[in-house]
Design brief:
By secondary structure, the protein is mainly beta. 12% of the residues lie in helices and 52% in strands. The protein contains 2 helices and 10 strands; from the N terminus they run E-H-E-E-H-E-E-E-E-E-E-E. Strands 3, 4, 7, 8, 9 and 10 form a 6-stranded antiparallel β-sheet that branches. A two-stranded antiparallel ribbon has the order 1-2. It is globular. The protein starts with a strand and ends in a 5-residue tail after the last strand. 19% of the residues are buried.
Length: 162
C-alpha cells in the first residue's frame, strides 16, 4: 500500500521556506514489514542489472532496494538527463565506456510494473576509468559487464510497484 504524507502548513520549516518561495512537497512512501538483507557476489561477464534481476526472481522478492553495489567493470552503459528543445529534459543516447573501470558505487530499486507485473530493476551508479575520470548515470539493462567481481547488498520488501 502506498501512503501519502502531506507536511502541515503550520510546520516551522515550511513557514521558513515559504518566505523564500520554496514549498515542501507532499511525499509518497511505502513501508514494508520485516525487510531481509541479501548479499550477492556477481561473477565476471555478468551484467549487474540482469544478475540482480535473476536473483530477485529466484528469491521471489517482488520489490526492494539496492543499497550497495561495488566492484569492477569491463563495460558500462548508461544514459544521463539532458535538456530537450522544449525546455524540458530527455535521456541521452546510451553512453558506452570500456574498461577496465572501478565500479565505485551504485544504488537503486526494483519492483513490478503495475500494469504488466514485469520486473524492473532501476540502477544509478558511477565508475572511474583508468585515467581517474568519473562517469555515471542511469544504467541500461544488458549493457554492462563485470570485469573481476561485483558485490551487491539488497534489502527486500513487499508492496512496491513501479
Amino acid at each position: 500500500m502506498v501512503n501519502r504524507l502531506v507536511v502541515d502548513e503550520s510546520d516551522s520549516h515550511r513557514r521558513q521556506n515559504s518566505s523564500r518561495g520554496n514549498r515542501l512537497p507532499a511525499l509518497s512512501y511505502v513501508a514494508t514489514s520485516e525487510p531481509v538483507y541479501v548479499w550477492l557476489r556477481l561473477e565476471p561477464g555478468t551484467d549487474p542489472i540482469q544478475g540482480i534481476a535473476g536473483l530477485v526472481e529466484q528469491l521471489g522478492a517482488d520489490s526492494g532496494s539496492i543499497v550497495q553495489c561495488m566492484g569492477s567493470l569491463s563495460r558500462a552503459t548508461f544514459v544521463i538527463a539532458i535538456p530537450d528543445e522544449s525546455g524540458g529534459w530527455r535521456f541521452s543516447e546510451p553512453i558506452v565506456k570500456l574498461g577496465p573501470m572501478e565500479f565505485l558505487s551504485a544504488q537503486g530499486t526494483w519492483g513490478r510494473e503495475a500494469e504488466t507485473g514485469r520486473l524492473i530493476v532501476h540502477l544509478h551508479g558511477f565508475v572511474v576509468d583508468s585515467e581517474g575520470k568519473a562517469h555515471g548515470g542511469h544504467f541500461i539493462p544488458g549493457g554492462s559487464r563485470i570485469m573481476a567481481t561485483c558485490e551487491v547488498g539488497l534489502l527486500t520488501g513487499d508492496g512496491l510497484t513501479i
